Every structure is written in C-alpha cells, then in structure tokens.
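Backbone-to-sequence.
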C-alpha cells in the first residue's frame, strides 16, 4: 500500500502544464482506494507530527527553517479540508494558518505583498496560506480590479519574492487543488440542500463559477509562470477529497524529511543541570528520579528508532518507485544531519528494515 509513482513527480507543474489535460477526478499513482488511503494517511500523520516537533524544537533553538504550504483552488475545492485533515494531524502550536480574503482598507493602502510578508511563518512553524498572494493574479485579473499592465508584472515579482523567502530558510510547497466544474456544481448544490451547510455558501461563489473559463486561464498562467525550481506548483486532482489530502500529506512529509531534522543541541550541560536539580530534591525523590532514569533513556531510544524507521520507510517507499526522490541524509538513526545529497547513509540498515517490514506483512497475511 503505497504510491506507485511519487506524487511530487506526478503533479509537479512546469511551463508546459496544460490544466485542461489534467483529469480532476483521477487518482494517479494510488491504486489502493479510499479506505487504504485513510489508513496510510494516518500512518504518515504520525511521521508528520514527529517531524513537525523537531522543526519546532529547532525553531525554538534559533534555527531558521520553516515550511509554507500555499493552497489555492476554486471555491469548494477543499482548501479548508486540507487545513483540517492534513494539518490537523500535527500539534496546532506548530502551525500558523492564514486565510486571505478581500483586502481590508488598510491592506489596500499597501503593496499586495505587504500582508503576505507579515503572515510568513516564523522559524520552526508550518505556515499554511488558505488563498494567498496568487489571488492578486487570479480574482484581481478575472474581475479586472487592476489593469493588465499591472497584474502582468506580478508573476515575475512573485517569483523573486518567493526566491527570497526560500533563501531565508522557508520551504515553499504550492498546491493547486484542481477541481472539475461538474464536481464544484455538486458541492455548491449540497451546500444549498443542507441547511447545516448554508453558512458555507456565498452567493459570490456562483458569480465566480460563471467565470469558470476565465479562472482556468488565470490558473493556467499561474502554474506555467510561477512554478519555479525553488517553489514549484503541484496541480493536485481534487474531485476526490481523500486523494488530494493524501497527496498533500506526502508533499509535506517530503518537505520535512528533506530538511534532515534533528533535535537541537542544548546550550547547557545536562550533567551540570542534573546536579543542580538534585540539590533541590529531598533524598527519597532523588532516589526515585535515579530509578526512573534508565526507563526514560530506554523510552527515548525506542522512540528515536521508531521515528527513524518511519523516515526510512518513507525514503524506501519512493526509492523503489523512483531512484532519486528525496535528498540528503534522511535515513540515518538521528534523522540525519543536513547532507549534500545522495542516498541515505545507512542503506544496509534500510534494506534490513525493509526485509523486516516485508516479513511483518507476510506474517500478517498468514494470520488473516
Ligand atoms: P473562502 O471562499 O476561501 O472560504 P471567503 O468567503 O472569505 O473565503 O472568500 C475570500 C474571498 O476573498 C474570495 O472570493 C477571494 O477571491 C477574495 N480575495 C482574496 N484575495 C483577494 C485580493 N487580493 N483581492 C480581491 N479579492 C480577494
């Protein structure tokens, strides 16, 4: 149960991407169906959560890394669902979600990137943009809120902006949820049919729908002109919500795995602090703490190796289907220091583990 082709290979947009040739109802690379996708996503969620904690810890210790997930798509494409179901798998403290609506009077007085800059994730965070600066070349273009001479220059400007953001340590993952017009019609109608969903309906959604083709053209330009090496777009088929969520989960896990995250080294000495703490304890509490010590150490070792296994499984899953899917040092016990590329260091161990995993699966089958 895994992807047959890496989602980042399947969905990465380029200057030649043609949206009308991408089937929004397809589920490429995943043959196992919806229920298996849910199960798989929960497993990956555990890894995502672990990696996010390391990113957060690094941020607290002065590290500069962060991740920014940009989610765009027509109304009802599932932007909110991505935030709830994918980012919902990690500690909310580490996530900074921002939605961008019609600019406020204050925002209107500034450059369109002003509000975006202010919302960029702090180091250690996973930032999520539900809509983004891309609205300034989407709705703004379709509704002719500024003349073409103005929006036309923005693609280049956005590319330069994102390059700078990336240089400062933020990995940008841009997802366009690619929905079919039919599916949008059904989703909007459901919002009308269900009184408990009326709050989600906005009459403007029908106005935007009436401009579907103009929006598709605007999206087409976005993905062709702003899918760069540093900040590529992924055009993710979104008629099946479970598929889109699964793909975004994998994209995020990959972004974090590629960072080769480790726990930060403390700026103090463990032994010194242990001595200081002991001096504040009653003798029987100190004795109790000494007894607890080995259990805590063993628990840490177990946990560290479980997480390293999960990372290795992730790397192995894609090594099998694609020889060079992820970079640098992700397979090592410590989750790897940042390397210069190449395969995970402990390939031998990885193979061993893979064998073990297969055996586990075999045994499971036997017992079924
Ligand atoms: P959503 O539809 O995402 O649930 P809202 O109902 O708040 O959220 O709608 C946000 C609206 O704000 C969308 O119609 C979007 O096109 C609009 N919007 C976002 N950014 C801009 C912008 N820069 N200029 C004009 N309109 C914008």
């Amino acid at each position: 149960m895994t992807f047959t082709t890496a989602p980042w290979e399947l969905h990465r947009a380029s200057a030649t991407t043609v949206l009308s040739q991408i089937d929004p109802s397809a589920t490429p690379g995943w043959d196992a169906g919806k229920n298996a996708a849910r199960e798989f996503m929960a497993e990956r969620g555990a890894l995502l959560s672990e990696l996010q904690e390391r990113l957060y810890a690094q941020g607290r210790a002065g590290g500069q890394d962060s991740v920014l997930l940009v989610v765009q798509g027509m109304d009802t494409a599932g932007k909110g669902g991505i935030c709830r179901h994918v980012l919902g798998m990690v500690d909310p403290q580490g996530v900074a979600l921002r939605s961008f609506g019609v600019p406020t009077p204050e925002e209107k007085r500034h450059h369109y990137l002003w509000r975006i800059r202010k919302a960029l994730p702090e180091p250690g965070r996973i930032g999520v943009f539900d809509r983004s600066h891309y609205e300034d070349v989407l709705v703004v273009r379709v509704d002719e809120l500024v003349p073409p001479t103005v929006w036309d220059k923005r693609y280049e400007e956005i590319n330069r902006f994102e390059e700078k953001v990336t240089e400062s340590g933020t990995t940008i993952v841009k997802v366009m949820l690619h929905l079919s017009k039919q599916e949008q019609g059904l989703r909007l109608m459901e919002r009308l049919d269900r009184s408990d969903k009326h709050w989600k309906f906005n009459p403007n959604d029908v106005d935007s729908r009436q401009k579907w083709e103009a929006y598709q053209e605007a999206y087409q330009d976005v993905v062709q002109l702003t899918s760069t090496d540093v900040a590529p777009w992924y055009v993710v088929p979104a008629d099946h919500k479970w598929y889109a969520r699964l793909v975004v989960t994998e994209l995020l896990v990959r972004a974090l795995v590629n960072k080769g995250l480790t726990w930060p080294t403390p700026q103090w000495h463990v032994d010194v602090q242990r001595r200081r703490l002991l001096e504040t304890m009653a003798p029987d509490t100190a004795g109790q703490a000494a007894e607890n010590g080995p259990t805590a150490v063993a628990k840490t070792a177990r946990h560290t190796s479980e997480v390293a296994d999960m990372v290795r499984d992730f790397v192995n899953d894609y090594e099998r289907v694609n020889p060079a899917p992820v970079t640098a040092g992700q397979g090592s016990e410590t989750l790897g220091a940042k390397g210069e590329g190449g395969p995970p260091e402990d390939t031998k161990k990885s193979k061993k583990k893979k064998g073990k995993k297969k055996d586990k699966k075999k045994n499971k089958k036997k017992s079924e």
